[in-house]
Write a structure and sequence with these properties.
- The chain is mainly α and 429 residues long.
- It has one domain: MFS general substrate transporter like domains (Growth Hormone, Chain: A, Up-down Bundle), CATH 1.20.1250.20.
- 78% of the residues lie in helices and 0% in strands.
- Helix 5 runs antiparallel to helix 7 and helix 12 packs across helix 13.
- The longest helix has 30 residues.
- The radius of gyration is 21 Å and the shape is globular.
Length: 429
């Protein structure tokens, strides 16, 4: 992307000229993709084994108690996402990325050898801090690099890398748990992710100069006195701006689904006779499809718009929950088909929501807007685990899945009503 006449192109800290675009920044973009593979791999450690560790290793009998680790993760990640936007005003994105990895160092060791469930929950607080900082910074930095014309593709590639790694790790931990037990072997592969992620992020360059260039090129300058702080942006993103409000609620319900399936599906399908390897396959297939699909859906959202993918994706997810129950007499088939619909539906929604928020946010307050959106989205993890725990303890696992289907369909209809397209950005070359 060219700098407009009369505008001086910024340089980075080493004096190199800065340009926006995927091709122009392909090396740094690729490094950030690999970093996010490590980010996703670390959280993927928990998808198959940890809900089962609660019952089989620590003897927990309440589903809500088992799901407490997801609540801890969701709350800490949501609050970190919110803080991350504000922290970018005081610290470089790279500094926050490195900090996130340092916080994540104890996580695989705690999951592997913690002597009490309380320490597992504490490890998930650290994991939430790690994910909030590292995932927030990788997506922000990719958006910074590519500029407005390729936001959907950038977010699609970012989320594809992360969630494919989540799924692949879930499958691997399921296999390792079958052959080596629930602990410690499956969790210790996280050491590789932490070491590689920390090493790679030391090589990545900061993107502050790219943000400065986009602000200079932006076709809608800030109005005089416009408040770009966290408080004002939080209110704007959460409820004042109709489209941002629509994206925030859809993100919350989407991750409510993920938090619910994270805790419920291992218990539901083992109750119906499936072993750890089969559960690992189901739990891995969902995020793998979610991840790989985004390489296409992110780019597609740049062409057809964000709203069609968001609305239809939420409805596809609702169908996935219905299939999980309708075919439960054949649990492996039910699990696989449900995972396919949930994975495809989430792939449609995820990059389109992030790109939609970026479209409606000025570069000067975009990091805070994305932080706010990601706050509400990841509150969904805690909400999903809380709803799942309460409903499962009182009405059973089946009722929990039905509630998820209804909430997801309703969220899709709200998105259809509230979200609008930002057409000037979609027509960028």
């Amino acid at each position: 992307m060219k700098t407009p006449p009369g505008t001086t192109a910024p340089s980075d800290a080493a004096g190199r000229p800065v340009r926006l675009g995927l091709r122009e920044n392909r090396l740094q973009f690729t490094l950030l993709v690999v970093v996010n593979i490590c980010v996703g791999g670390l959280v993927g450690l928990e998808r198959t084994t940890v809900p089962l560790i609660g019952g089989r290793v620590f003897g927990l009998t309440s589903d809500l108690a088992v799901f407490s680790f997801i609540i801890a993760f969701g709350v800490s990640k949501a609050l970190t996402n919110l803080a991350a936007g504000a922290l970018t005003a005081r610290f470089r994105r790279k500094q926050l990325l490195v900090t996130g990895w340092l916080i994540g160092i104890p996580v695989p060791f705690a999951l592997a050898w913690a002597p009490s469930w309380g320490l597992i929950v504490a490890a998930n607080v650290l994991l939430g801090l790690n994910q909030g900082l590292t995932w927030s910074m990788t997506v922000n930095m990719k958006i910074d690099l590519v500029g407005p014309a390729r936001r959907g593709l950038a977010t699609g590639l970012n989320e594809a890398a992360g969630y494919t790694a989540v799924g692949a790790t879930a499958v691997l931990t399921g296999y390792l748990a079958t052959t080596h037990g629930l602990r410690p072997v499956p969790e210790l592969i996280g050491v590789v992710f932490v070491a590689a992620g920390l090493a790679l992020c030391l090589v990545v360059r900061d993107t502050a100069a790219h943000v400065a260039l986009e602000v200079a090129q932006h076709d809608k300058p800030l109005t005089t006195g416009e408040d770009t702080g966290l408080k004002a942006t939080f209110a704007r993103t959460s409820w004042h701006d109709r489209s941002l409000r629509g994206a925030s609620q859809a993100g919350l319900v989407n991750n409510l689904n993920d938090g619910l399936t994270w805790g419920v599906f291992p218990l539901l399908f083992t109750d119906h006779g499936l072993g750890l390897a089969a559960v690992g396959l189901i739990k891995g297939l969902y995020p793998i499809l979610w991840g790989l699909g985004q390489t296409y859906t992110g780019h597609l959202s740049d062409r057809v718009g964000r709203k069609p993918l968001i609305v239809s994706g939420m409805l596809v997810q609702a169908v996935g929950f219905v299939l999980a129950l309708a075919l439960l007499g054949h649990p492996l088939l039910a699990g696989i088909l449900s995972a396919v619909f949930l994975g495809i539906g989430t792939a449609m929604v995820y990059p389109a929501l992030i790109a939609s928020v970026s479209d409606h946010a000025h570069p000067a307050w975009r990091a805070n807007a994305l932080g706010t959106y990601r706050f509400w989205r990841d509150v969904g993890y805690a909400a999903g685990a809380l709803v799942a725990g309460v409903l499962a303890d009182t009405l059973g696992l089946n009722a929990t899945v039905i509630a998820a289907a209804v909430l997801t369909a309703a969220s899709g209809l709200l998105a259809a009503r509230w979200i609008s397209e930002h057409r000037t950005l979609r027509t960028c070359p």
